[in-house]
Amino acid sequence: MHAITTRLYSFSCRFIQACGLILSLILFAGAFVCTCYSSDMTTQQVLVKWDNPLRGLFFLAVFLLIASGIVRLLFQVSPSPAKILLILTLLWCAALGGLLIVYGRSVPAADALSVYSIAESLAAGDTSVIHPTDSYLSYYPQQIGLVSFYEGLIRLWNLLPFQVPAYHFIKCIYVCLLCVILVFQKRTVHLLWQNDHADCLYLVLAGADLPFIMYSSFVYGEIPSFAAASVGYYYLLRLLKRLPAAPAPDTPGQGIDQKRLPDALLTVLALSASVMLRKNNLILLIAALIILFLETVKNRRGGLLLLGLCIAVCGAGILPAVQKGYELRAGNELRTGVTASSYLAMGMQESSRGKGWYNGFNFTVYQEAGMDSLTADAVSKAAIRDRLQYFKEHPAYAADFYLQKHLSQWADGTYASRQATLATYGGRNSFFRSLYEGPLSRFYIGYCNVWQNALYLGTLGCFFLLEKERRQKGSAPPLFLYLGFTAVLGGFLFHILWEANSRYIFLYSLLLLPYAARGLCPLIIHSPAGKIEKV
Question: What does the DSSP 8-state code read for residue 498?
Fold first, then answer.
């Protein structure tokens, strides 16, 4: 039995390692040869521009030289470069986030506005928004967790003597959550690699990630859900890394001891909160369960299996629990909402914005079905069969469709950050108008493309380094190193099938940052060695 579990664990490590090499190569190749972007903020159509490879190499080299130069300089002038850089990066992100609040003047729009408005109504005591047919939540009940988060913040804001809308306060909270993400991802990087150079490179890459800062003004679920996920992933990794060595064969392992119970509890709470704020983060939760299961197979510790069970139950149950609470409060019920099959069908269709992007199919089908899920599901599955038949009859079209769909999501270095934060409560100044729709937008798109190339190149380099380490040691690295990438792999497969949007890929770019930081370390391999910090 021990031999079987050892082989399963080893096979899983090598499989994920191979997937990492293949996927990171696909991502880098796609982003390097082309740039996907929107130039018209009215239509928001995704365009594809094929890049000059020599020009791309030049700007990528310049970016990497600047990044490595910053790290080298810090190692020369400070005995604790990572600590200094963390403080500088936090101040930088907080300052830019504050400037965006004051001068960016973004307001919630579309789905974000609907969620925010419902939370405002509930905070004012109006529970009529909890309704089976006459509410946004009738179509999208999965947003109930984000509604509850906003309601709490709005109620807190209403206690203060200010007359400005609460979404300004929420944006301030989001800037603070950017700092939470930076702190816990930096800790995660150090936990994974034990390398000060990687710590510093992560902070440089994160500070240079302009969409990351831009999204602090997007009043929706991305930032708070990833802040929760980054906390959950850190404590899960810390728990797994600090486990004692596996017991002898045929000897049952011990459970999670009392010293590790806080890590386990924080993991469950944080990952559950992440799903509550953004249901698609179930992908991140499933990745954690996969890693936990395989680590249980290796370590033979029932405590890990129990932890996985707690994560699964709490993660799957938190949204229904929040929904039930609101239904009891309102004395009303919500429908099951737009069906998953309608999203899959829409992901196979043409759209004015891009292949597989939102075209209203899911909403229209559910509405025309009289908000009956079974009818809408049947219509959606029929639409899927029709598209599959069409793809079968036109294979060249099918290949081009999914290539364009892939590129429109993973080769957009801006991650739709301009489109997401486009709406304003008044006119922007000339600088921000130009950044969104004028000449400066071209520089923003170009810069983000270079940053994304560095991200994917670093990720590719990381998997080459891990493969080199595996061959030198004759054994695969521990599987928990691949926790974040397992979530990225799941997201890649999911969004090939689901509704497309480069905004959905934004969180996966953050998950790749720890790998990119490790992969870019050879750039500064000859710099002075820094002292390893304790987590």
Answer: S
